[in-house]
Specification:
alpha/beta; three-stranded parallel beta sheet; globular; 10 helices; 11 strands; 41% helix
């Protein structure tokens, strides 16, 4: 489950092992990012009932939740569906790198609402690098601020931006992750007073995004990740960890 770059790498490991699998993604963007994997790709969101039906009809034996680290509702639905049909569930979640950066201008908060409260006491121009899904919530929570959105350059995201009142001078459509040098220049160009992001880990360019922000004296608000639905050996935090779990799974088939 998941349309991230991590999910694609997991699929490549499954391909190499000759495992029959399906990659389930929510959007056409995720389908495109899957690339030339050998497994079937199904596109479209599933609620709890649909997921239970799908898992049952396909006689699924193992689910790997490689959805976005902040897709809390999705992960909860997957966990409940797997419990319902008694299917093994593993959660792939890359390390967040949160502990690797500390700074007086770095504010770590647990929720979007908490991020809004911190941002209200900071500068006027707030750069959002948190994706497009919650633009309406940011607009409501920071109504008095000038919001700038760095988002993916795809049509449905542009539509979301427009629907939430973002004008052409407030949208930066680009596909990361980016280098520290690029981000430093970008912060100067967009004249951000505050930056809000998520703990995206190395694959999401977390340090390359946050360190130049702090170096420029710009406050940075980081929304920490929700707790994963699984723990122990089923919580996988690297491709090597998945490879080891895959070998154990294959040995038991």
């Amino acid at each position: 489950m998941g349309g991230t770059s991590d999910a694609r790498l997991i699929c490549q490991q499954l391909d190499a092992a000759g495992v029959n699998y399906t990659l389930s993604v929510a959007t056409p963007t995720g389908q495109h990012l899957a690339g030339d994997i050998r497994g079937e790709v199904r596109c479209g969101r599933m609620d709890f009932a649909a997921m239970v039906t799908w898992l049952t009809q396909n006689q699924t034996r193992w689910v790997v939740d490689a959805s976005h680290p902040y897709a809390e509702v999705v992960s909860d639905t997957i966990a409940r569906a797997c419990q319902q049909v008694k299917v093994l569930l593993s959660r792939y979640q890359r390390p967040d790198q949160l502990a690797e950066l500390e700074h007086p201008l770095l504010h770590k908060v647990p929720t979007l609402e908490a991020a809004c409260e911190v941002a209200k006491g900071l500068g006027q121009r707030v750069l959002l690098t948190t994706g497009s899904k919650d633009l309406a919530r940011w607009r409501a929570g920071l109504a008095e601020k000038t919001l700038l959105a760095r988002v993916l350059p795809v049509a449905d995201v542009m539509t979301q931006c427009a629907e939430n009142g973002f004008g052409v001078t407030e949208i930066y459509a680009m596909c990361g992750p980016f280098s520290a040098e690029f981000n430093a220049a970008f912060y100067r160009q967009c004249r951000a007073d505050v930056m809000i992001t998520k703990a995206s880990g190395a694959e999401g360019g977390y340090q390359e995004k946050v360190q130049p922000c702090l170096d420029a004296g710009i406050p940075c608000i980081v929304i920490t990740r929700p707790m994963p639905a699984v723990s122990g050996e089923e919580l996988l935090e690297s491709q090597d960890a998945f490879s080891q779990r895959l070998r154990r799974w294959l040995a038991n088939q």
